[in-house]
Amino acid sequence: MKITVAGKDRSDVLVREITAAAANLSDAELERLLAGESDLLLLNEAEKTDDYLDQLITLARHRNSVDPSEMNISAGKGIVAGLGRALRRCLWKMIRPFHDWIAFRQNSVNIMLTYALEFEKQERQAAIRKLEERIRRLEDGRKTEGGNR
């Protein structure tokens, strides 16, 4: 890539500055959380609707659950951070049963939706096969009639 400023090639200087600024913005926790999202990019590679739907169903199967075990209480330094961490742990122990119940219900809905999507795809494919077979029989019948005239 070439970056031109005021008619002069400034690629070398600006690339170093942009790279340094990007390194300062990196967040290891955010990168960990987003690492699993890279599978979504596979949806862009689908060339046909069926390929897209296959990828979508596969992703839905792998991602149809809410996992509270990934939650962690951020660590900090100092007395105030320690008190805040202790308070968050106490609050988490109080709300955890409710959270787990909601996560269970959400997981059930997600699984049902995944199955419904897969069932709909199978039904659509069966209907398409029936229509293609019917068209083939009609075309064969027309060819036979045309040949007898």
Essential attributes:
149 residues, mainly alpha, two-stranded antiparallel ribbon, 72% helix, flat
Describe the structure.
This protein has 149 residues and is mostly helical. The chain has helices spanning 11-25, 28-35, 49-62, 79-148, and strands at 4-5, 8-9. It folds into two domains: 1-45, no CATH class; 46-148. It has a two-stranded antiparallel sheet with strand order 1-2. The mean pLDDT is 81.
Beta-strand content = under 5%
Poorly predicted regions: none
Q: Supply the helix-strand structural class.
A: mainly alpha
Secondary structure tally: strands: 2
Largest sheet: 2 strands, antiparallel
Radius of gyration: 28 Å
- Count of alpha and pi helical runs: 4
Distance between the termini: 68 Å
Helix coverage percent: over 70%
Q: Which assembly state applies to the chains in this document?
A: single chain
How many structural domains?
Answer: 2
Q: Can you tell me the overall shape?
A: flat
SSE pattern, N- to C-terminal: EEHHHH
Record the strand order, biggest sheet. 1-2
Mean pLDDT across the residues is: 81
